[in-house]
Amino acid sequence: MRIAIYPGSFDPVTLGHLDIIKRASAVFDKLIVAVMHNQNKVPMFDTEERMELLRRTINNLPNVEITSFGGLLADYARQQDACAIIKGLRAVSDFEYEFQMALANRKLNPELDTVFLMTSAEYMYLSSSVVKDIAVHGGNVAGFVPAEILDDIMLRTRKDG
Ligand code: ADP
Predict the structure, then answer these.
(1) Strand partners, 4
(2) Pocket test for ligand 1, best of 17, 35, 128 (most atoms within 8 A of CB)
(3) Domains assigned to the chain
(4) Phi and psi for 29 in degrees, rounded to 5?
(5) Edge-to-edge strand order for the sheet containing 64-69?
(6) Ligand 1: which residues within 6 Å by Cβ?
(7) Ligand 1 atom 21: the closest Cα is on which residue?
(8) Residue 37 designated active-site
(9) pLDDT one digit per residue (tens) for the chain, 161 residues
(10) Is the pTM of this model over 0.85?
């Protein structure tokens, strides 16, 4: 059984994340989408909410599991018996940091490899921050996030605004 972990903040999940989830779940036997809860920034959605939004989005993918974690990814991967970390690459600017992290994680856990999946061209510009920026300024994020979570984002930004 080949298990991979896809870590991220997912605050909130976007169509770019969903694209990576679908493609990674087709390559591995099981994909663990791991929501990081040791963030410095105050998130728009707390860890439980981010997991719930992800669950709603991926309900037709049987080999995808949603979890959360804090601390070291290399340790969490070992605990979960994962052989790979999945990272999405958007632009050259993602590369330098991800390259450093991949080497650090391999040093911490030599059995763990990082697998980079290229973004689909239509999601190249897309990040959770872009979605939040548009939403708090009253813009329509319908083309950026899964339809199942659109209302949650609108309600949250209305309440906070
Ligand atoms: P953000 O979406 O704000 O960049 P995350 O921490 O939630 O931040 O991202 C989790 C992972 O998903 C990272 O590996 C990131 O590179 C990848 N990712 C995010 N958006 C996209 C996208 N549009 N296309 C491909 N990968 C993406």
Answers:
(1) 31, 84
(2) 17
(3) 3-125 (3.40.50.620)
(4) -70, -40
(5) 64-69, 30-36, 3-8, 84-89, 113-118
(6) 8-10, 14, 16-17, 20, 87-88, 90, 94, 119, 123, 126-129
(7) 16
(8) no
(9) 999 999 999 999 999 999 999 999 999 999 999 999 876 778 999 999 999 999 999 988 999 999 999 999 999 999 999 999 999 999 888 889 999 999 999 999 999 999 999 989 999 999 999 999 999 999 999 999 999 999 999 999 875 54
(10) yes
